[in-house]
Amino acid sequence: MIAMAVPMVITLCSRMLMDLADFFMISRLPVGADIAQAAILPAQITLWTFIVTGMATVSINSTFVSQSTGRGRDRDAGVYTWQAVYIGGFYGLLGLMLYPLLPGIFELIDHAPEVQALEVIYARICLLTVGPTIITEAFASFFNGVHRPKVTMWSAIEANLLNVVVSMVLIFGWWIFPAMGIAGAAWGTLIGVVYRMVRLGVTFGWGRFAAGYAPRATWRLDWVKLRSVLRTGLPQGLQATSDVCVWMVFINVLTGQMFGQTALVASNVAWQYLRISFMPTFGIGIALTALVGKAIGQRDFDLARRYTRIALGILIGYMALLSLVYYLRRYWLIELFNDDLAVIAIGGGVMICAVVWQVFDGAAIGYHAALKGAGDTFWPAVLFIISHWVIVIGGGYAMAKLYPDLGILGPWMAAATLIIFLS
Fold first, then answer.
1. Are the C-beta atoms of residues 63 and 77 closer than 8 Å to each other?
2. The pTM is what?
3. Residues 83 and 67: beta-carbon distance below 8 Å
């Protein structure tokens, strides 16, 4: 469990650190840092409402790959992976259609005009990452499924380092390059993502895996397997889209629009720490999905249950430790990114909400990952979609209206209620 989980945690943390590094760098802009801080998370999360549909859909490939290898049918692992790659390419082309719609989308969100302008700039560049991001996930799910997560880990670390260097140069205008601000962060992300896609694709097709899984002989469309990937992957893709849509409305409307720019900045800063919580747990979840999938492919159901119990112990222990850190150092953590006293006070309150739900979030992620490894995606998706909209959006809006004196803590309390319910 640990051997599988550690590389996957590092992989997911690398992408989280990529966004965190961008957020930190724009917070050091000599002019307009607060506006850029207010703009970057809404732009990122708006794009992720589209990207995550494809990513979650193709990530089911790890279940097919692990179950295929568990049955001794290695060639099928290559076939399934190519179908996931084609789905990623289709999503990338579809994403380009959003380009002319982005100004209207951010106008509907109705942040301050100067924030909207930066949101559009960032999102239009990062729209080019849609296809590469999903194709990268298709390749990564293959390596995770065959229990070779270190391949994805090193590709993520390399991409992350490349992003930091490129973003730093373009944000602040070093060497011969002009200072691009938030646009520089977007270009750095694009270059890092494309590098990782090419790196994993070359390793898949021409590396030491080529002999066992025959990727260059299995590249053709297989409609039966393509339908299997879509039938099992789409429920979790729609669930993931619904989840991100909920958090997009939560960040953009229930905090930013209803409580103003200071509240939006505070939520955005606190969100950077929440990523430190849930991104590593997702990595453990991906490892658990692959291990449960292979155990089920071998018809060893007791082993699948043992993996799940071990993963839950790790997840709950990690989240409990973070809860203690967040409680004791909440104001200092917010101050690292923003020294405005109002932002620090609001952000510290948000961190208390995070303290309440951390352990429950670990349990929910663990059980959900185990169900995914068993190929059970439909009913968990139904549960997630309904509960997110009813509890976070419905409950969050009710808290904002009925208890306005709580400020953004009202909606964040609704978010904590959701996670406790799901676990």
1. no
2. 0.74
3. no
